[in-house]
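> Could you send the Phosphoribosylamine--glycine ligase prediction when you get a chance?

Sure thing. Input:
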Amino acid sequence: MKILVIGNGGREHALAWKLAQSEHATHIYVAPGNAGTEREDKVSNIDIAVTDIPHLINFAKDNEIELTIVGPELPLSLGVVDEFEAHGLNCLGPKKQCAQLESSKAFSKDFMTRYNIPTARYQNFTEVDKAKMYLKEMSLPVVIKASGLAAGKGVVIAQTMDEAQSTIEDMLEGNRFGDAGCEIVVEEFLNGEEASFIVLCDGAHALAMASSQDHKARDDGDKGPNTGGMGAYSPAPIVTNEVHQQVMQQIIQPVLDGMKNEGEAYKGFLYAGLMIMPNGEIKTLEFNCRFGDPETQPIMMRLESDLVELAFAALNEELDEYEAHWNPGTALGVVMAAGGYPDHYNTGDIIIGLDQAHQTNSKVFHAGTKRDGASIVTNGGRVLCATALGNDIEEAYAHAYKLVDSITWQNEYHRTDIGKKAFSKISIHHE
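Output:
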């Protein structure tokens, strides 16, 4: 069968790469794709923007696409799945109503309150003065989020009251995040360890993907500005069997039940960003309505099941009859970014080292890249994700950073400590 993947990042490259391994897949099209997707066997790029839903539908019809998988959040928030389904096309992802869990943090927090899903204390605001009044009830640091989609960058952890007040002004009056920031969420800061818990849903059932941990801060030691993610590893030792069961019962199933209660079954990937606190309490930081990036890259490296079969099980409401199988080792991905990301950075720099032969346990997934004549050049903030498998976290770390060291361009930047917090952790983790 022919399959369409919508998106152009590292997540979509990893999904297309894994889909192409299925015996059911004859060809994968990626719209619009990047310089990495076009180099894969059985994969080609289609020059259609992720927001150009009419052209995506026409392409799917004209080319007899039997399955479409939506990578990024923006087309989901625009109702791409609703439109595809209205034309009788299979499209894996949540419909527009469900996608509000990501496209509106205010909706998401209120939804969690309605269905008793554990999360941080919060309030939503559209007015500066009321938000500043609420600050008086909060202890520092305090978290301030743009409610709308901000590409993973709309969160500020304010360490002082002055910073909190100026952030509120910046978002609500200074238009820092445009429409995404016309409503904000002010919430308590939670201490603990973060984990990414991603499941595939069929409306009633959820099949857990391998656990993972993302690194949002740009700099080593979790310092610096928030980004879309600087690296990830899987599995996350913090997600024990007990944590897994608790998350499925207290967070994931209530989302499915709540959405069904509000009139729309949740199908597709659901990502719960978790905070696992020192006392064992688990709270939901956020929901994303798609696979995480860069978590997809190490998770796809470990997936041994057929992704096409899992996608159709979700569409056909048969996930309770399936389980996913995983490589028992660890996969780790290091994001190689343009210097200056997530603020100002250069594009168009030639990437050197991509054509070297790499070990079979390593894979370079492209994100912000494009072809320029005979060269592949940078075309975004997060450029590549150097990903590797190992028997354990230390081995995966060594393989991944060996891959990082073999590739370069002008002002390339990466963290040097991805996965190090999991070194020497002895824990029974659930797969």
